[in-house]
Amino acid sequence: MKALIIEDEKLAASRLQKYIQEVDPTISVLQVLESIEETLLWFAENNSPDLVFLDIHLADGSCFEIFDRFQFDCPIIFATAYDEYALQAFEQHAIDYILKPIKKAHIERALSRARKYFNSTSTDTETKIVDHLAGKNDLKRLLVRVGPKINLVKVEDIAYLYSKDKITFAVTTSNRRYPMDKSLGYFDNHLDNDFFRINRKFIVQREAIDDMTRHTKSRVKLSLKPPIDIEAIVSTDRSRSFKKWLLDGT
């Protein structure tokens, strides 16, 4: 495998090259480039590498300026100190998004994903990026599709999630509804303690509860904001833990 490093920080580039060689000595690092112009010139004069390691901020501007003038035809591993460019990275053949400082374990994971990418055309890249940024049990944002576009929505802006006709929907505090490609079970495992799964069909955020009424002796019906025409009833087996969650947040 032939790799190209585009990184203007010499120490970061040196560390990256060192870890690549330690993880997989068969990988040949063709060159280390530092700028947009240098990168464009290199691709004009050379065949495309198999893999590119790319920093966001280069010596003469943002790496995304490169994509306005040239499209890579190989997968890209982004390495940056900033996490807010994940969506743009996904749109540019990204197979991983490493947050600095770079560690050997990051390179091991990234190269493993690169091998899987070359062995399969169905890599779930967007899920990997978001899971990586969020952390296994500390989801901070959701990747949502709006027509042909993909947006990031902050978890703090989610009022509740529900399941209908085998599709999971996320509803924001501003009453926007997004179909999700994950199950309620996934969100139940990844959202923080501001959310509670009241039954098999609903996960609610504490601040989204507008009112509560007794439904039966052991069940409570919730009025949510924004309103929804589906009944949100706390199941009997979750009633006790729901009350505890409301009272002391656990």
Descriptive overview:
The structure is a single chain. By secondary structure, the chain is of the alpha/beta class. It folds into two domains: 2-133, Response regulator (Rossmann fold, 3-Layer(aba) Sandwich), CATH 3.40.50.2300; 141-248, LytTr DNA-binding domain (OB fold (Dihydrolipoamide Acetyltransferase, E2P)), CATH 2.40.50. It is 30% helix and 32% strand. It contains eight helices and 17 strands. The protein has helices at 10-23, 36-45, 64-67, 86-90, 104-119, 125-134, 184-190, 239-248; strands at residues 2-6, 28-33, 51-54, 57-58, 61-62, 76-80, 94-99, 141-146, 149-154, 158-164, 167-172, 177-180, 195-197, 202-205, 209-214, 220-224, 232-234. Strands 2-1-3-6-7 form a five-stranded parallel sheet, with helices on both faces. Strand 8 (141-146) and strand 9 form a beta hairpin. Helix 1 packs across helix 5. The radius of gyration is 23 Å and the shape is elongated. The model has no long low-confidence stretch (mean pLDDT 86).
